[in-house]
Amino acid sequence: xxxxxxxxxxxxxxxxxxxxxxGDKGDIVNLxxxxxxxxxxDWLREKVTPEAVKNHLQDIIKGDVVRYELPNINAFNFVxxxxxxxxxxxxxxMDTHGKTLSSALLxxxxx
Amino acid sequence: MLRIGSGAGFxxxxxxxxxxxxxxxxLDYLVLECLAERTIALAQQRKRADDNEGYDPLLEKRMKxxxxxxxENNVRLITNMGAxxxxxxxxxxxxxxxxxxxxxKIAAVTGDDVLDDIDLKSPALENNVSISxxxxxxxxxxxxxxxxxxxxLETDANIIITGRVADPSLFLAPQMYHFNxxxxxxxxxxxxxxxxxLLECSSQVSGGYFADGYRKxxxxxxxxxxxxxxxxxxxxxxxxxxxxxxxxxxxRTVKEQLIYEIHDPKAYMTPDAIVDFTxxxxxxxxxxxxxxxxxxxxxxxxxxxxxxxxxxxxxxxxEISYAGSHALEKAxxxxxxLKEHLVPDITDLRVDFIGLSSVHRTSFSEVVPYEIRLRAxxxxxxxxxxxxxxxxxxxxxxxxxxxxxxxxxxxxxxxxVLSTFIERxxxxxxxxxxxxxxxxxxxxxx
Lengths: 111, 446
Description:
Chain A is of the alpha+beta class. Chain A has 3 helices and 7 strands.
């Protein structure tokens, strides 16, 4: 069954309905969230709140999560503070830039 | 109409796609963006060791390929490959022109090095600690704007080499120069910076850092084409790539790149304008073509951002593998041993299990991998202490747990980066011209 038709019929993972790219500035990572179907924007706006993202990524994000909305392109930007073990230049993380963190966001389950 | 190509999105980018652009995209300008947050601090260290050094390590390789093509096709190159030494980079490029016997003019743009001008008492943006509390500052470079490049464009230089310039400003400068936009026409500048932001990471907008094996299928990934923009006098642009190259440009790739490395989409700070992305309109006009309109901007900030590099000690790392049904248990035993031996010296020791939890600090699915690679890492101001990490990992060979293999160790000097601000008035950009003419036409200039 198509992912969209499964809405409300149990859990699905974000990667089935949206894509994402991570960017870094110092110890801050920003994660875009872009639905494949632009009409899913309002649904995701309701489901993927900053609190839900912070909860899902609690092992990664140590600071706040701010969600910015871009209804002009039907996309979101999650800015996550204290998320890179100090930032690219002095981080002890394997992925110092946090490039892989977009995949972590997309593992989030929604209904 | 103006056409600008993106020939590199980072220091290690491929060279062939830039050659394809110069040959086949009918460009006016090719921009090569090659600096990251920390690269310039590392370059400053190289310059300190040798006055002629400190520019991008791949400059010679790139210029040998691109300079002849650019001159032949009448394409001007703009690049920040000057890093810590734009004048040295221009001199090296002049030598290449001489060697290949290609008459050309090269302009170096300086002024971003503000190590002697920053206020050391100013607080770092990241943690509010005063810069002077870091006792081993190695560099301070201000992010210059398009206004630093325009005087170089006003000369007839074929190649313009800068140090630190804000990435999208490298693309804004030729737009301002070509369309004669004023420095206070912030709405146009905002749209021009949106185009620059979309181009600055080369194939990230044309399907490279986008492809997956699931819903984002990309054709011919091994021959990915780099993007170029065709720009109108009002700043509206069409992002596309050379026909026949691999990759894809559509709403999905452009949206991903639009939001890349931004925070508040209403206020993206650049030296030239505060950009507003929230009105941007995107439209697929043809296969692999997206039209970008309605970006906007507000008055530029009164200060310039400065990246300050400092010695952050030494990073010690060690790795070792375990395999089989009890790989994870053995890796966990090894972690205990390492902590026992290292934590007195290495207070921030980090142990990752590669294949399980090394990049997300956790795992979002319940799998036990057949093999685990343990990685230990930590910092110390002393190189000898940092070395202990790799040495202790190696010592696991004979001292257990059982059947560890493939140990590797490494120590590297680390340069940290802090950010602060400087008043514009304290920063003066300058242009230095060099020219190579054939001897019968009058010899070498300087």
